[in-house]
Amino acid sequence: MLCVSGVELMKTYRVEVNKYEAERQELANAEKLFDLPITMYPDLQNVQKQMKGLEMVYALFEEQTVGKHTAVHMHATNPIR
Question: 15-62, pLDDT tens digit by residue?
Fold first, then answer.
């Protein structure tokens, strides 16, 4: 069974959401060109909002993980006597 971390999944999903946003922007440009009302995509907006929040959480997680590994490494190389 393949084990993929949440951080890796977030990066994958970010690429996917960016692709959908680019398509949305292209459609909006075409709608403007033909003087059509701009279509709203509330689900995409909701996903983007959730992604921003999750990215903040995962950024904190990564900082904590790096800090934890650094502290463990420092303690291993310079144990308190």
Answer: 999 999 999 999 999 999 999 999 999 999 999 999 999 999 999 988
Encoded tokens for 3: 């084990």
| 41 three-class SS | coil
pTM, whole model, 2 decimals? 0.72
Amino acid at 81: R
DSSP code per residue over the chain = -----HHHHHHHHHHHHHHHHHHHHHHHHHHHHTTPPPPP-HHHHHHHHHHHHHHHHHHHHHHHHHHHHHHHHHHHHS---
Cα distance between residue 72 and residue 78, in whole Å: 10
| Separation between Cα atoms, residue 28 and residue 40, nearest integer Å | 9
24 and 16 Cβ atoms separated by less than 8 Å: no
